[in-house]
Design goal:
Radius of gyration: 19 Å
Strand order of the largest sheet: 3-4-5-6-7-8-9-10
CATH superfamily: NADP-dependent oxidoreductase domain
Order of helices and strands: EEEHEHEHHEHEHEHEHHEHH
Distance between the termini: 28 Å
Number of strands: 10
Shape: globular
Largest sheet: 8 strands, parallel, barrel
Oligomer: single chain
Structural class: alpha/beta
Bound molecules: NADP nicotinamide-adenine-dinucleotide phosphate
Strand content: 5-15%
Helix content: 25-40%
CATH topology: TIM Barrel
Length: about 325
């Protein structure tokens, strides 16, 4: 396993991290039992995964992490959790204040600190509210040692072109140690402005949802490509057919999912790429994929040529 530095936090994180949200929610959606989850996390640790992403709003995922990481030396892994300020303002989702949410996360995860705290989805129009009203509360928790570093996540669905992220990284880069965003085969837009900004300010990048639905569900994938051919995002004859990415599976590339993780990891300044799998065999395959290094040049170059300006809300 390769380890990279999470920007100015200085934390060393595994290139493949484990995300406990997404469609699988740490196996809650696929029927994993407590012993399955324990086996999954122990295998992840054995394979060198040391970065675990969760959120107050990810169902029971924080409790699951608490259970499965119990007894593991606390400084051998990096924990990151989130609070959704927009959801709280609307009276929904988390239903608790930032401070109460962090306290609840600590209890659920059986720890006295999280290494990274993130604002879960900052939209452009709520940016100032987060900065002026909520950030000082997070900074107090940092002073108390309950959180180590402060970041936020992109809102993929509403802001696939990173409006809120760009506002934060241009206006107040010193506030944000880590940003979670989506960069991948079907979402290359971040390479234009956001990733260079992050690199300039030494902000750690956690890359999320690089397979997600568009690369794991052939129907969703073809629908997105149809739309892009129609609106001119890609050439009108590009990526046709039932298996539009089969050319990626060549040489040492075993699957489209593997190509997705390798492509997502090779872009500077990526610190860690999350996988949200609930399947141990897929976890092992994804670790092995990143150990094989960047995608071979011809495939990587062709992806940029075909999809260089791509962005999508899923
Ligand atoms: N704004 C936010 O804060 C936000 C938004 C989205 C995601 N996230 C975080 O990012 C994490 C990662 O996103 P994600 O859950 O969408 O993860 P992902 O790894 O991009 O996609 C997971 C999907 O890919 C499949 N998959 C994974 N490896 C595979 C393989 N080797 N072969 C075939 N299929 C494979 C999984 O199915 P199997 O279970 O069958 O492997 C699952 O359907 C989330 O869990 C969450 O923690 C955060």
């Amino acid at each position: 396993m390769e380890y990279r530095t999470l920007g100015r936090t200085g934390l060393k994180v595994s290139l493949l991290g484990y995300g406990t949200g997404g469609a699988r929610k740490f196996g809650a959606a696929t029927g994993l039992t407590a012993s399955d989850r324990l086996a999954f996390v122990r295998r992840a640790l054995d394979l060198g995964v040391n970065f675990f992403d969760t959120a107050g709003g990810y169902g029971d995922s924080e409790e699951y992490l608490g259970e499965t990481l119990a007894g593991v030396q606390r400084d051998s892994y990096v924990l990151e959790t989130k609070w959704n300020g927009g959801g709280w303002l609307e009276g929904g989702e988390t239903g608790v204040t930032l401070t109460d949410s962090v306290e609840r996360s600590l209890t659920r995860m059986r720890t006295d600190h999280v290494d990274v705290f993130m604002f879960h989805m900052i939209d452009e129009d709520l940016y100032e509210t987060h900065r002026d009203r909520f950030y000082p509360e997070a900074a107090r928790l940092k002073e108390q040692g309950k959180i180590g570093h402060i970041g936020f996540t992109q809102t993929i669905r509403r802001e696939p072109k990173f409006e809120g992220v760009i506002k934060a990284l241009t206006g107040d880069p010193e506030l944000w140690d880590v940003v979670m965003l989506k960069y991948g085969i079907m979402n290359q837009w971040a390479a234009k402005e956001v990733l260079p900004l992050a690199e300039k300010h030494d902000i750690g990048i956690v890359n999320m949802a690089v397979v997600r639905t568009t690369l794991s569900d052939p129907v969703a994938m073809r629908a997105r490509l149809d739309q892009w051919r129609a609106d001119g995002t890609i050439a009108s004859d590009a990526l046709m057919g039932d298996e539009p990415f089969d050319w990626l599976v060549e040489g040492d590339v075993g699957s489209v999912a593997e190509a997705a993780y390798r492509f997502a990891a090779q872009q500077e300044p990526m610190s860690t790429v999350l996988t949200g799998t609930s399947n141990i065999a897929h976890l092992e395959a994804n670790v092995a994929a990143l150990e094989r290094g960047p995608l071979p040049d011809p495939q990587a170059r062709k992806l940029v040529e075909l999809l260089g300006g791509s962005w999508s809300p899923d």
